[in-house]
Design goal:
The protein has no helices and 15 strands. It is elongated. Helices cover 0% and strands 36% of the residues. It starts with 18 loop residues before the first strand and ends in a 5-residue tail after the last strand. Strand 3 and strand 4 form a beta hairpin. It is mostly beta strands and 201 residues long.
Length: 201
């Protein structure tokens, strides 16, 4: 869908699934990942007619063009500054970043060479810097350089194990008394809690 930046009615652009839709700078072309079947999004090594491919939609001509033909997964396309595209593919056995031009007969070029894992969540800056997730960490690759892990430091809160009270009224779904009758396990809000049956004085 499109909607005016100033507000107003939305307009349908494509009636078919278009994941990771990326318009170009002119707003006349739309890069996207198709979804031929509904399956586990994180399935690895899928090789079938149900695997995803990268497509291009010309809004002026209202025509679609398939850009990738690998029978495995091709996903998450982004525009390259030179007019080509970057995308994630399992052509090398693991999900890595690949690049291909929109014009000419040049073959896809592998950009990252990670093994034993899968590259996910590809994004690109205007200067061509690629940022993505790999093995639970954030990675960055600037043009002409090798990929580097981004050092992310997360502040940790208090690690003290103090007792605290929570209200679960109306949220209990199951309970079970311990064999000795001194404790009861309850499920509330999707979590398991153990409550002492001892009388508090």
């Amino acid at each position: 869908y499109t909607v005016p930046a100033g507000g107003g009615r939305s307009r349908l652009v494509l009636p078919t699934p278009a994941l990771f839709a990326q318009p170009d700078a002119t707003g006349k072309q739309l890069l996207y990942e198709n979804r031929p079947v509904y399956e586990n999004e994180w399935r690895k090594g899928a090789v079938s007619d149900g695997a995803h491919d990268v497509w291009l939609y010309d809004m002026t001509k209202q025509s679609h063009r398939q850009l990738t033909v690998f029978r495995g997964e091709d996903r998450n396309p982004v525009w390259a500054p030179d007019g080509g595209i970057f995308y994630l593919s399992e052509r090398s056995g693991n999900s890595n970043i690949w690049k291909c031009p929109l014009l000419g007969d040049a073959k896809p070029e592998q950009i990252t060479k990670h093994t034993n894992g899968a590259v996910r969540f590809l994004s690109i800056a205007r200067d061509g810097t690629l940022v993505y997730g790999f093995e639970g960490e954030v990675w960055r690759q600037t043009p002409g350089q090798s990929a580097q892990r981004v050092a992310v430091r997360i502040r940790q809160g208090s690690s003290t194990h103090e007792t605290f009270n929570v209200t679960g009224e109306g949220q209990f779904s199951e309970m079970k008394l311990s064999p000795d009758g001194k404790q009861i396990a309850v499920i509330a809000r999707g979590e398991v809690f153990v409550v002492s049956m001892a009388t508090q004085t």
